[in-house]
Amino acid sequence: MSQADSLSRSKHMTDQGSRERRGSWLSHMREDVAAMRRRDPSATSDANVVLFSTGLHAIWAYRRQHWLWEHGAKGLAQFLSRRSRRRYGIEIHPAATIGRRFSIDHGMGIVIGGTAIIGDDCMLYQGVTLGMTGHHGGKRHPTLGNNVMVGANATILGDIHLGDNVKVGAGAVVVKDVPANVTVAGVPATIVKEHRCWEAARLTLVKPEDLDNENVRWSCAL
Predict the structure, then answer these.
(1) E strands along 70-214, which residues?
(2) Which of 28, 98, 108, 164 could be stapled to 180 by a disulfide with Cβ–Cβ 3.0 to 4.6 Å?
(3) Domain segments of the chain: what residues?
């Protein structure tokens, strides 16, 4: 293969990679808009979300800054992160790891630390803190599973794990691991509700063998 052919092939592969990245970014942006539209009853259209959702603007700013952080431009990422904090009132460290279809409602006062990990389909309300307890070095911020909802002014501290489908009540302070499929509230946070249908069988008249019935499972989910 000649040098010219090699350069042409390399340019073609680079262009193809750029198109794929742009397609991926656009796909993720569409998902973010759809998630915000689904979760915000005041949103009247996709255009309304794109133009006026401060939480969505902060998320997109974070995603750009995270890309810069991951590609070595850490100083620029931190500089832009500080500008975003002043502009939106939301502080997300560019090193944090956040999954797809993430939503922020209202958003003022949210703080997400640098080693925090947030799964897919999560939602945070205003005033939420994903912070540390004073431990320095290594993993020091919380990990949230998929489909986690954190209510207004809740605080989650330290290297702890919240399982999938967890709901955290407004104003709660969470300092210990939380199993999946529960609601926690209070200071310190304790479990106040379980969403697992097989647990409901112990507390109700539903027999365990009836849980194979689809109608029973739907009833437990209500």
Answers:
(1) 91-92, 97-98, 103-105, 111-112, 117-118, 123-125, 129-131, 143-144, 149-150, 155-157, 161-162, 167-168, 173-174, 182-185, 190-194
(2) 164
(3) 3-195
Structure tokens at 156: 């989650």
Given a cut of 70, whether residue 22 has pLDDT beyond it is no
Mean pLDDT calculated for residue range 83-102: 95
Fold (topology level) of 3-195: UDP N-Acetylglucosamine Acyltransferase; domain 1 (2.160.10)
3-class secondary structure per residue, 162-200 = ECCCCEECCCCEECCCECCCEEEECCCCEEEEECCHHHH
> Per-residue confidence at 209, pLDDT binned at 50, 70, 90?
low
pTM of the predicted structure, to 2 decimals: 0.75
Q: Among 70, 120, 123, which residue's Cα sits nearest to residue 99?
A: 120
Residue 94 gets which letter from DSSP?
A: T
